[in-house]
Amino acid sequence: MTMQMQACAPEMSATILLVEDDRDIADMLAETLSQNGYTAVSAQSGAEMDRLLRRQAFDLVVLDVMLPGEDGFSICRRLRAEMRTPIIMLTAVATDVDRIVGLEFGADDYVTKPFNTRELLARIKSLLRRASYGSERPERPKTMSFAGWRIDPVSRTLLDDAGSQVFMTTAEFDLLVALCLNAGRVLTRDQLLALTHAGVAGPVERSVDVHISRIRQKIEPNPKEPSLIKTVRLGGYLFTPMVDAS
Fold first, then answer.
1. Which element (helix H / strand E) includes 125?
2. Among positive and negative, which fits the CA dihedral 131, 136, 138, 139?
3. Could you tell me if 122 and 144 lie in one domain?
4. Looking at the DSSP assignment, which residues form a beta bridge with residue 17?
5. Assigned domain for 1 exists
6. Same domain, yes or no, for 82 and 22?
7. Same domain, 240 and 142
8. Phi and psi (nearest 5°) for 41?
9. 72-80 vs 96-104: helix axis angle to the nearest 10?
10. 102 with 179, same domain?
11. What is the DSSP code string of 176-232?
């Protein structure tokens, strides 16, 4: 199945896909998003979501974990294998384990039910801003190269030494760009959150570690013994390669 890639829409005219089987919650969210300038389209299952994705492009997906049939974790992993559109997961379970599982499967952020709609709106706005951030910063290098990898902050692509594109979530990409721009410098988790413009609506500090782990799985020669992104005890993270910017 070929899914629609992320649309290039301005932040406040974004089209958001809500995958939520609770009709009351879906209707409430759709109305709230509409009142705040977004276009919302709802699906009650993974199968219905797939049909919508074949017909239309979306700027962001809000995905419930507990769904009939295929659950949200499985859907998230499947979506992330084919697209880089930002994904926010809704979960009724407040444990760190369940939240981290969602991030490990490729979600960019998560919100725990019951949630404050203003918090969800803030997280949506933050992710949409971050997803379009590269094109809003012309002073950034067009491309950067390190250890055989090539990253383009404007087109938001990461290419390996063979020229093949590696899909990354919005959060992963922003973190890698921040590391590249600060190569050789130890960055704390708080600094990484600030550099990725997550602000108060961004992932909690613990989530940075999960995203870094996922980046390592994609770029490190040996993710179990990382050499490109080093963990600095009581400090944060250090990006070790030389970075060539153009």
1. helix 117-131
2. negative
3. no
4. 41, 61
5. no
6. yes
7. yes
8. -125, 135
9. 30
10. no
11. HHHHHHTTTSEE-HHHHHHHTT-GGGS--HHHHHHHHHHHHHHH-SSTTS-SSEEEE
Q: Would you say residue 50 lies in a domain?
A: yes
**What's the pTM value of the predicted model, to 2 decimals?**
0.67
Q: What is the dihedral of CA 121, 124, 127, 129, to 10 degrees?
A: -70
Per-residue pLDDT of the chain (246 residues; tens, 9 = 90+): 444 444 444 455 799 999 999 999 999 999 999 999 999 999 999 999 999 999 999 999 999 999 999 999 999 989 988 887 889 999 877 666 767 777 778 888 888 888 888 889 988 988 887 766 544 444 556 799 999 999 998 888 999 999 999 988 888 898 999 999 999 999 998 888 877 755 444 445 567 888 899 999 999 999 999 999 999 988 899 999 999 987
User: Residue 74 sits in which domain range?
Assistant: 11-131
Task: Please count the structural domains in the chain.
Answer: 2
Residue 212 and residue 235 in one domain: yes
Calculate ∠ Cα 56-34-41, nearest 5°.
30
- Please report whether residue 2 resides in a domain: no
Mark which of 98, 114, 131 sits at the end of a domain: 131
Tokens of 220: 């490190």
**Residue 122: burial class (beta carbons within 10 Å; 0-12, 13-18, 19+):** middle
Residue owning tokens 């209707």: 27
As given in the structure block, the two tokens for residue 55 are: 């017909």
| Shared-domain flag, residues 145 and 211 | yes
